[in-house]
Amino acid sequence: MIEPTDASTTAEEPAVRPPAAGAPVEHPTGGRELAVGTAMLASIVGVVSALTGALLVVVNLTGHAFGAWRSPESLSPGLIGAAMLGVTPGLFAVGRARAWEEVRTLLLPLVVVLVGLFAVSVPNGGELQAVRGGPLFLVLFSLGWVAVLGLLGLSALLCLLRQYLKPARPRGERGVPLPGWSKPVLAVLGSAWFGIGAGLLALPGFWADFVPWTVGRADAQALGVWALALGIGVLGSLAEDDLDRTRPALLALPGVALAVTVELAVHATRVHWGSGGGPALLSMVGGLLVAGVTGRWLLARGSATGPMVEGQELRTNVADLT
Fold first, then answer.
1. In this predicted model, what pLDDT tens digit does every residue of 224-237 receive, in sequence order?
2. 83-112 burial, b for 16+ CB within 10 Å, e for fewer?
């Protein structure tokens, strides 16, 4: 005699098969595969930035204005060196990424810096140490500055073109989305850096008056290039809305903020803190530090929680139904 059974006990639960050991797992965020050349370029620029930035920071911290062009104050070339030194941790982290979309919030601003600094150096060639004359080391440094920037800028543009020629995979679910409260803050921070950078780059004679220390035309435009790149990076992270795709940039932001803070602290007597530009600069630099540290914390917390895998979600849905 066959005993009747409950339909719920005879219903066969769908089997959930975990991926086989060693099987390739598709990157959840999709996107374009990161080209080897792009990763190599980031590492090369990281080495150049670390060496050049450290040289600019150390020499200018002593009070001597040292740079590719003549500067009225040592603070401006020191800040340029601090930005170069601070971004290097993010550049060295690019090689660990698998998709272009994981690094573009850092590498797109990097292209802006390389091309922008070269574009600033050429029109201001009359201010270069090689043209104005001076110690041999400064002359050679200014010549190398222009040559290396031109070579790296061209290489960056070629790598960028190659990246966008690669086929793009469909994007899956976001790994760690930005919290809602952070988006207005990032929008204001990114717009502030972008705006002051665009102003210094396009109208250095006018916007240089808002810089709370004495700057020349080349200084103002070079600082504008860096400010513009920082604004693009912050706004790009806002557009990505995925902290998984901003890992290298989250290393660069606090690095730049800390290096710039040290430079400003040592040259504090050179800065007109009573003007509006002084407090505004501090708030913008502090915003970079807070954004980077908070982003790293949110990313670590989101990664520890981890996304719900397909099998767990299916079993949860079956349990809810029964």
1. 999 999 999 999 99
2. bbbbbbbbbbbbbebebbbbbbbbbbbbbb
